[in-house]
Amino acid sequence: MMRWRLPIIIAGLLVMAVAAAGAAQRPPARADLWDLKLGTRAESLPDAYIDYACGTNGGPPSLPLRGWRDFRRCAAEPSGLREVYFRYDDELEYWAKAHDYSTEIEMFSGTKIFGYPVVVSALFDADGVLAGIRIVSDPRDPSGRREEAYSLRNFLSARYGRDGWNCRQLAPDEGETPVGRTFIKEHCSKTIPDVGLAVLQTHFFRKKGQSEFDPQSGRETKDQFESLVRFELTLAR
Questions:
Q1: pTM above 0.85, yes or no
Q2: Quick check: 17 and 26 in contact, CB under 8 A?
Q3: What pLDDT digit, counting tens, does each position of 10-32 carry?
Q4: Which residues contact 76 (CB under 8 A, 6 or more apart)?
Q5: What residues make up the domain containing 152?
Q6: b/e per residue 159-193 (b: at least 16 CB within 10 A)
Q7: d(CA 79, CA 93)
Q8: Are residues 107 and 186 part of one domain?
Q9: Is residue 53 part of a domain?
Q10: 58, 231 in Cβ contact below 8 A?
Q11: pLDDT for res 163
């Protein structure tokens, strides 16, 4: 009897080993911006992120915070909302590097939306309710693809439906010029049913004083342009 059981036991162990190996190959889940549901109170939001701090209108962090509940330590914006900056947990980035998983290293490195490095933040009202989210393309992008940041707008507009956006093409301010033949200075908004208002701004141009070539040396310049996407989704009031 035992001679029949032994192959079965060995086969079972092999199946378990294969299943475990397969699980190790699959990238685990990581909380991202889309896990934050508007209308949720601060104390009920997932504490699955790192480096909480008061935000600076989509810029770098300022006053460090212990978590969402500290939002009242941040100054209110003109809208009355308080911005809390955060980053995605980087534990999975180190997990991917330890296993030398190139795809997962790219997936889990930094804080990204649709593969674009971004600064993300949560916006709280006076009652501690998550009333908005903010996404700004990160000008510190080390990948050398900062010029492409403006194309993030295509993914964000698609997420909320390409139709129904009310867009205005803004005229250049003094000294603003195209990058090559492209000049984008666009402001779009859309009411999202049962959610609120989405606002999407896109810039791609050279600001005053920026140029493709250095006027002194004649050499091609680097990163002398603004390629920016700014997105906010706020609850209807």
A1: no
A2: no
A3: 444 444 544 454 444 555 677 89
A4: 82, 126
A5: 144-237
A6: ebeeeeeeeeeeeeeeebeebeeebbbbebebeee
A7: 36
A8: no
A9: yes
A10: no
A11: 94
